[in-house]
Specification:
Jelly Rolls, 8-stranded antiparallel beta sheet, 6-stranded antiparallel beta sheet, mainly beta, single chain, 269 residues, 34% strand
């Protein structure tokens, strides 16, 4: 359990990555300004450490894209912001991690908060992704550029799409591209054999869709973790985000709601 800027995150088993950009204790100088030149590794690594010292997070990416990241103040606290449109095609501004030293598990959960608008004036790519495993599986924030659908894409090894599921929140509905803060979670359970696959998608603590289709689905055993994109130069996110969490298990409905209720005061909800 950790307390950062007044936000207490519930103690939930399986948590491997937790990013709150207000947690500056890992910066070499805790009083240093957080700016567009600050990278994910500045926020997450202990002072004096190298990328090899921190599992899961070995950030890389295009420097042009990184220049379009900043940490503005919202509600008196910092949040992350990235501008995919300004970065330009091929300059992926998403936070990139590494799973090279950690075998990817079949059951996992991603959780994060987002605030964004849809449209050609705000987005670089046709589809907007919130995070997941690069070019393999991810949750999408806005499908098809002009659609408001949100959900999850699952790819098995060989980049063969097995299943896509989601829901249509509408531009003014919960989880839509309405320029308001929303909490998004997706989780997958894989039991290791046919018929043991399940995926869930949540917005603001509520389960919007559960799928148990695609009995032949098999997960990847490796992959690059992303936050705010699908892969380099595609699916890049423009908007605000914070409180990224990655669990190596499928967390329960009650645990998703507990995270939402614990973190929403940060966003004035």
């Amino acid at each position: 359990m950790g307390t950062f800027t007044g936000i207490r995150t519930p103690a939930i088993d399986g948590l491997k990555v937790y990013i709150d950009v207000n947690n500056r204790k890992c910066l070499p100088d805790p009083d240093a300004a957080v700016s567009s030149s600050t990278k994910l590794y500045n926020l997450m690594y202990e002072a004096g450490s190298s990328s090899a010292d921190v599992p899961y997070l070995s950030p890389s990416g295009n420097s042009t894209g990184h220049a379009q990241m900043s940490f503005p103040t919202f509600n008196g606290r910092r949040v992350a912001y990235q501008d995919a449109l300004a970065a330009g095609a091929g300059n992926d501004p998403g936070w990139l991690g590494s799973m090279t030293s950690n075998t990817r598990v079949g059951s996992y959960t991603f959780s994060s908060w987002f605030r964004y608008r849809r449209g050609s004036s705000y987005q670089l790519a046709e589809n907007i992704y919130g995070g997941g495993f690069s070019s393999q599986t991810s949750f999408y924030m806005c499908w098809g550029g002009t659609a408001d659908d949100a959900g999850v894409l699952h790819y098995s090894p060989g980049n063969v799409q097995n299943y896509s599921h989601g829901y249509a929140p509408g531009t003014s509905g919960p989880g839509g591209s309405d320029d308001l803060w929303h909490h998004h979670v997706y989780s997958t359970y894989w039991g290791g054999s046919a018929g043991t696959w399940e995926s869930r998608f949540y917005v603001d603590g509520v389960n919007k869709n559960t799928s148990t289709n695609q009995d032949t689905y098999t997960p990847w055993t490796s992959g690059t973790m992303t936050w705010g994109s699908w892969s380099g130069g595609y699916g890049n996110y423009s908007g605000y985000m914070n409180h990224f969490m990655y669990f190596e298990r499928q967390i329960s409905d009650a645990e998703v709601l507990a995270i939402y209720n614990a973190q929403r005061p940060f966003y004035g909800i």
